[in-house]
Amino acid sequence: MPAEVGKTDMEKIGLFSEMGYTTIGDKYVSPFNRPFNEAASKNRQMLPGGSKVMSNLQAGYFDSQFARIFEGEGYVNMNQVRRQYMMEEAKKNLSKAFLPSSGEKKLYANVTIGKQFSHSADFYDEANLNYKKASEQHRRLLKGTPFKLNLYPREYFDTNPYFSDKPLPPIKIEEKKKVLPNPFKPSSPGKKAGGMKAGTFEAYPSHSADPYVVKLEKEISRKDAKIFHPSGGPKSRPVESIMALNVRR
Fold first, then answer.
1. Helix or strand (DSSP H, E) at 135
2. What pLDDT is attached to residue 156?
3. Measured distance CA(143)–CA(17) in Å, rounded
4. Closest Cα to residue 202, out of 194, 211, 213?
5. N or C: which end of the chain has fewer CB within 10 A?
6. Where is this region: Disordered (predicted)?
7. Global pTM?
8. pLDDT band with cut points at 50, 70 and 90 for residue 206
């Protein structure tokens, strides 16, 4: 290759290769030796003044001077205001206040210009008494129940079968039976009749002699006698055990 060219063919050649999966060629930096917050150690930094303590100084407010409420106002006495209002209202009166005359005065009859009103008795419950009298007189004049046609309006549902417009009969007062103050007691209890009748009207029946005799059973004849013989059942036979049978074999 001539010397005029700056790079050789081996330097110009391009080879294709698959990139690695673990790294891209950068240097390994340990996480323990890595500096924390590098920007805090470079250039100029702002240093705060630290935590503040609560106080009542003016430095904690935005205004240069503390502004007070109601500063320069005059003191108002509420009692004085009420008295002034009462004096202004009193000026509106046309004359003095009315005062009743002192001393007791008695009333006399027939000293007025006109005639004296006559007194009439007025019962407290007179209106109710008059109403009761009028209603009782009206009931006396009624004869039977009110007349109703079969076409008069009725309720939608069945009527009450126990309801009746007829007047009820007078209430029957049951006579109370006289209750005896003390129960009846006989003069003396019943007594037994004489002659040892044991409470009966007639003499007690006499006891008949009946000696005790042992009754023998009836002898059974040999002809009529039948002896019971049980039926013959299955009889047992000698049986060898399975173990003894196998041992012999």
1. helix 126-141
2. 67
3. 133
4. 194
5. C
6. 180-199
7. 0.18
8. confident
pLDDT at 25 over 50: yes
Dihedral angle over CA of 116, 121, 127, 133, nearest 10? -130
The one-letter amino acid at 237: R
Q: Which two tokens stand for residue 105?
A: 């005065």
SS3 content of the chain, % helix, strand, coil (to 5): 20, 0, 80
Name the residue type at position 145: T
Query: How far is residue 100's CA from residue 172's CA, in Å, rounded to a whole number?
Result: 70
Give the N- to C-terminal CA distance of the chain in Å, as an integer.
Answer: 115
What are the tokens at 246?
A: 């196998």
Tokens of 19: 């990139």
Locus of tokens 């009315």: 98
Tell me, what amino acid is at 75?
Y
d(CA 81, CA 95): 24
